[in-house]
Write a structure and sequence with these properties.
39% strand, elongated, 8-stranded parallel β-barrel, alpha/beta
Length: 438
């Protein structure tokens, strides 16, 4: 009764209380908080997760780059069928999960971009699904995608290559020679830990060393390199691997020997070619086939190429029309005054000496030991024999000398220059590397 009575007696107080309740906004904070919390959490989560996604993309890009490089290395090694497997193996090794919902594609050649259709390039595309955390209030699952392209590129050239795949000391410098090959790479395809062996008190100056194995520096040998040696690399291609010698019939000369002044024409010299110490020989341009027997040039002999044309040159080809065991060797002795250049065109372009690859490795050593008076512009090639070299082109003339043999040995002072090889018709001994280009 009192409460009713009080209400009836004070209507103004009731109206005041109702007005106050109407104006009260304290409850709206709970509603606002309830509505705003997901927005705030999503915004904060989006900021945090954006950093995580950026890190994930950087990681994924590393995986793609590694994959593309690995695939390109298979191209460099001449194994194009291994490109895809090698690329994916390297991606997985670097953390990529090669399973759904992730995606992966390897293209050789690339299917898009500036290197599309380039056979020496490998394209890798990787996609990795990300599951949002707080930002999942606004976003569904998303996929990070990256792309990488790596390409095989020529990084330099070698001027010396030992072809034997496993020999210790396949490329050797022994005794006390000074071997100067500035700007030139000395290479060996042997996988031996001592594929390149510098012994004695030899001093070697070169652009670099390249080998499928390793190199040793014994005795008091000194090796001066412009760039660090590349070891455990891949074997270099033999630029003359497919070259053969045509079938011969008949002889233009038999048991040829001279100790006088003569001009000779190209042809077939059966059972050897010998120049004595007083020989003064002019060789007209062309190919000189030595069918059985050896090429011998004594100290004191003088040999020149009578080559007036810019593409003229001479090539000595050691072969045999009867038996591979009859294929002879070269022996240019100290003091021989030999200045010759290889032809720039024709079947034996770039070659000054070519030993028929049918020759067995028991045929003997090829010795080019003319010293300072021997100037050979062109390639010396002997796939299965030793090439022993002591030559010097410091006096000028030869601006491109290339030596390719099963086994290459330097025994005396030698200077080899390969600056003129691009214009000498000599097939380059390419040093290739791979790098990411996109």
């Amino acid at each position: 009764m009192l409460k009713i009575s009080s209400a009836r007696q004070s209507p103004s107080r009731l109206r005041s209380w109702i007005a106050k309740l109407y104006r009260d906004r304290s409850g709206s904070l709970i509603v606002t908080f309830a509505v705003a919390t997901p927005v705030v959490l999503g915004a904060v989560g989006l900021g945090v997760e954006s950093g995580l996604w950026y890190t994930a993309k950087r990681s994924l890009q590393t995986e793609a780059d590694a994959a593309a490089l690995s695939g390109a290395y298979e191209r460099a090694k001449g194994r194009p069928t291994n490109v895809m497997a090698a690329a994916m193996r390297e991606a997985v090794r670097n953390g990529f999960v090669a399973a759904a919902p992730n995606t992966s594609t390897v293209n050789n050649p690339p299917a898009s971009g500036p290197n599309a259709g380039e056979p020496e390039a490998v394209e890798v595309l990787l996609g990795k699904q990300q599951q949002p955390l707080f930002s999942g209030l606004f976003l569904g699952d998303l996929t990070i995608s990256v792309r990488s392209v790596a390409m095989v590129q020529t990084t330099g050239t070698a001027c010396v290559l030992a072809l034997d795949p496993s020999m210790d000391g396949a490329l050797t410098s022994t005794g006390n020679p000074t071997v100067n090959m500035a700007g030139c790479v000395m290479a060996a395809n042997s996988t031996s830990a001592s594929a390149i062996n510098m012994t004695g008190s030899t001093t070697v100056t070169a652009q670099s060393l390249w080998t499928a194995g390793g190199y040793t520096n014994g005795g008091s040998a000194t090796i001066n390199l412009t760039t660090p040696a590349e070891t455990n690399a891949w074997a270099l291609d033999d630029p003359y691997a497919s070259m053969t010698v045509p079938n011969l019939s008949g002889c233009d000369h038999n048991n040829f020997s001279s100790n006088s002044t003569q001009t000779l024409n190209p042809g077939v010299f059966c059972n050897g070619f010998s120049l004595q110490s007083h020989a003064n020989i002019a060789l007209n341009p062309g190919t000189y086939y030595i069918d059985g027997g050896n090429l011998q040039i004594q100290g004191g002999a003088k040999v020149r190429c009578n080559c007036p044309g810019p593409n003229d040159g001479v090539t000595f080809v050691m072969t045999s029309s009867t038996s591979a065991s009859q294929i002879g060797t070269a022996d240019i002795r100290g003091g021989a005054d030999v200045v010759l250049s290889a032809p720039k065109t024709g079947s034996f372009a770039g070659l000054i000496f070519f030993q028929d690859p049918r020759a067995t490795n028991t045929a003997g050593d090829n010795k080019f030991n003319g010293g300072a008076s021997m100037q050979l512009t062109g390639a010396i090639y002997s796939r299965y024999q030793t090439v022993e070299y002591t030559g010097n082109n410091d006096s000028g003339g030869a601006n491109c000398t290339q030596i390719i043999g099963r086994h290459v040995v330097f025994t005396g002072h030698s200077t080899i220059n390969n600056t003129g090889c691009p214009t000498a018709g000599v097939e380059p001994l390419k040093i290739v590397g791979v790098r990411v280009v996109e």
